[in-house]
Amino acid sequence: MDAAENIEQNLVPDGLYFAGAGAYTIVNELPQDEKAREDLLDRAMGEGRRRKSSEKLRRGRLPSEGLAFSARGAGGALLGTVRLWDIQAGHDAAGKGVRALLLGPLAVDPASKDLGIGSALMRHAVKEAARLGHGAIILVGDPEYYERFGFTGAKTAGLAMPGPVERRRFLALELKPGHLDGAKGLLTPKGRRSSRAMRIIPVSLRFSA
């Protein structure tokens, strides 16, 4: 199953996702989401999240434009979050920098676990990254979870994180076939720099109930 086939599950025509007796929508993240998002990440991942190698690629940067998403319950509560970040995935055989996206963190409020929210966020993020023309997504996560979305370690053997990483959890998904062929070297941050006041630029695509 390729990236394009991974993204339509659980989505009904009007953009409303159903989770048991409840429902939620996925929308572009807004500036006012920042505090609620940080609180959710603390609950879901703990304080140790700030010491992960991936954080070195996100620190001081804004997410890739149009690629920061929130899952909201029927009452507007933040139930989940995912962001993608512009990075350079080393260089190709000709020495040219390889642009890619870093996904993470993906997190769901512990009170809303096992409702399919994380999977819906992943499928939406992959779909949007492909629609915007990006070539590949890289992440650090459990293959037992992320393989269902097409992520494998096949294209990360020549790449390195800016810190310790468990190789089996260093995964990638090509949105354009061959985009990571021959890519070698250290992942480095690219894209927009952050200011002290967090700003997210919304895009026109938005789901509503």
Automatic annotation (TrEMBL):
GO molecular function, one term: acyltransferase activity, transferring groups other than amino-acyl groups
Lineage summary: Bacteria, Pseudomonadati, Pseudomonadota, Alphaproteobacteria, Hyphomicrobiales
Keywords linked to the UniProt accession: Transferase
Organism of derivation: Phyllobacterium myrsinacearum
Name of the protein in its database record: GNAT family N-acetyltransferase
A Pfam family recorded for this sequence: Acetyltransf_7
Domain N-acetyltransferase: 24-172
